Model the fold of this input.
Amino acid sequence: MNVAEIRKSALEDVKKAKNVKALEVIRVKYLGRKDGELTKILRSLKDLSVAERKEIGPAANELRGDLEEAFSKKLKEFSASSKRGVVGIDITMPGKKIAVGHLHPLTIIENRIKEIFNSLNFSVVEGPEAETDYYNFDALNIPANHPARDMWDTFWIDSKKLLRTHTSPMQIRYMEKHQPPFQIIVPGRVFRFEATDASHEINFHQVEGLMVGERVTLANFKYVITEFFRQFFGPGTHVRFRPSYFPFVEPGLEVDVMLNGNWLEVMGAGMVHPKVFDAVRYNPRKIRGFAFGMGLERLAMIKYKIPDIRLFYSGDLRFTNQF
Done:
């Protein structure tokens, strides 16, 4: 194929090109460094006579310039067509940033809690959100007419079934089927029939913890919880323990952490009450354990400085996309 034939064929191919991809194939066919038709002619000049080089060389170089100009013009046509909505790609434009999904802050917090407790040899278990009053109250030393039931504003399904008010029922369910020693955490959604405001919701999330064995003491609890909060909030976090009351533990404790110079309540806990062990047929004289519970929303609000619990359930992507 001589210079004149290449000119005719190449310009016709450029004219017929339907898109950028096809145009690039044509460019490589004629101007490709390795096997381009015009490139072959330019490389062959060294083997020609002086007279032939004088005739073919200028014509080949002129064609090269004409083809490059034709390719550039055609590429601009594709770009203009793309901007008008016609199929085509403007390869000169920067790529669009692809939107990336974000984990919900509660998911991030739950995953971090699981990670820390897994490192402390705790297993993760789950339980039903619809419970019976036996598991939610009776077996946890909160029998019918017990004044402590007023601590939980309950959604009742019928006279015996309810939406769980805490994740503590899994203490009973797990101990009924397993023998100590063991240590578990139970993350999950819980429900309370109460007014909604910046710090209260009708549904929220808790993480229950339970460690049971023959030689479990408050010293074990203190180490586990201190280590957890130092990993969660940072190595310099100060933790303190205060006496409190919960029907299913004795003694009961409140756990506070100091952040930015303030003590913040973050957990309720204590040694498992002997009557709870009686309910699962453990011998409370031989078996001891500690239990604790904390709210995911509260931990997330503290860690990320979120002012209103209702933001977690707003569905507003401007909130979620910050995490």
Remarks:
- The chain has a mean pLDDT of 89.
- The chain has two domains: 3-83, 105-320.
